[in-house]
Design goal:
Structural class: mainly beta
CATH superfamily: Nucleic acid-binding proteins
Radius of gyration: 14 Å
Number of strands: 10
Distance between the termini: 18 Å
Shape: globular
Order of helices and strands: HEEEHEEEEEEE
CATH class: Mainly Beta
C-alpha cells in the first residue's frame, strides 16, 4: 500500500504517439516517439509489438507516467511508461493487452488525476 502523498508524486499525462517503430533485433519491443505538449517530445520503449502493429499506434493518444526514471532497453532510452490493462492470464489464448486511453481527444500533456 502507498499513501495518498506518495500517489500524488506520480505525474500521469495524455500523450499523442507521433512515430512508432520496431526495435531492431527484437520481436516484442516498439520505440514510440510521443508528444507531451509543453513538456516536449519523448521516447518510450514498450513490449507491445505482439498486440499492436507499429503503424496502428501512430496518431493515437494514451496515458503515460512521465516522471519515471529513464531506463535503457536493448540500447534504446525509455523516458516514461504507458498505461495498459491486462485481460486474462499471460500465456492463455484469450490473453490481451489493452491501452488505457482518454475518452476523447485531449491536448497533449493534459494532466491525468
Amino acid at each position: 500500500m502507498i499513501t495518498f502523498d506518495e500517489f500524488k508524486k506520480l505525474d500521469f499525462r495524455v500523450a499523442t504517439i507521433v512515430e512508432s517503430k520496431s526495435v531492431p533485433g527484437t520481436k516484442n519491443l516498439l520505440k514510440l516517439q510521443i508528444d507531451l505538449g509543453e513538456l516536449g517530445k519523448r521516447q518510450i520503449v514498450t513490449g507491445l509489438a505482439q498486440y499492436y502493429s507499429a503503424e496502428s499506434l501512430v496518431g493515437r493518444q494514451l496515458v503515460v507516467l512521465v516522471n519515471l526514471k529513464p531506463a535503457v532497453f536493448r540500447g534504446e532510452k525509455s523516458e516514461g511508461m504507458l498505461l495498459a490493462a491486462e485481460v486474462g492470464k499471460q500465456g492463455d489464448a484469450d490473453y490481451q493487452v489493452v491501452l488505457v486511453v482518454p475518452e476523447r481527444e485531449l491536448p497533449p500533456g493534459t494532466p491525468v488525476h
